[in-house]
């Protein structure tokens, strides 16, 4: 078991890429990351000042959707 410190605060969402080995994570810090090369550091895909609790990837691995609950 290995622990990575990628988000400042809790992870709000974690999903597996539908047809690939990558994991997508979204944090309460507003950062979305893609984890594809373990144990390498993840790539940041998007940042905002609001928590990002919802993420999903398309079946072809070409699209990432992130949503916030900011009203």
Topology record:
Elements (H helix, E strand, L loop, with lengths): L10 E6 L6 E5 L3 E5 L7 E5 L6 E4 L6 E4 L4
DSSP E strands, number: 6
How does the overall form come out from the CA principal axes? globular
Query: Low-confidence stretches at least 5 residues in length (pLDDT < 50)?
Result: none
Q: Helix fraction?
A: under 10%
Series of secondary-structure elements, N-terminal to C-terminal: EEEEEE
Order of strands across the biggest sheet?
A: 1-2-3-4
Measured on Cα atoms, how large is the radius of gyration?
A: 12 Å
* Main beta sheet: 4 strands, antiparallel
* Total number of helices: 0
Mean pLDDT: 75
What is the structural class?
mainly beta
Ends distance: 38 Å
Q: How much of the residues is beta strand, in percent?
A: 35-45%
3D structure, described in words:
The protein has strands at residues 11-16, 23-27, 31-35, 43-47, 54-57, 64-67. By secondary structure, it is an all-beta fold. The mean pLDDT is 75. The strands form two sheets. The protein has a four-stranded antiparallel beta sheet, with no helix packed on it. Strands 5-6 form a two-stranded antiparallel sheet. The protein is built from no helices and six strands. The chain is globular and about 30 Å long.
């Amino acid at each position: 078991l290995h622990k990575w410190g990628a988000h400042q605060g809790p992870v709000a969402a974690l999903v597996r890429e539908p047809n690939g080995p990558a994991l997508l994570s979204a944090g309460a810090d507003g950062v979305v990351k893609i984890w594809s090369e373990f144990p390498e550091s993840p790539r940041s895909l998007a940042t905002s000042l609001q928590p990002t609790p919802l993420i999903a990837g398309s079946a072809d691995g070409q699209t990432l959707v992130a949503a916030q609950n900011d009203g």
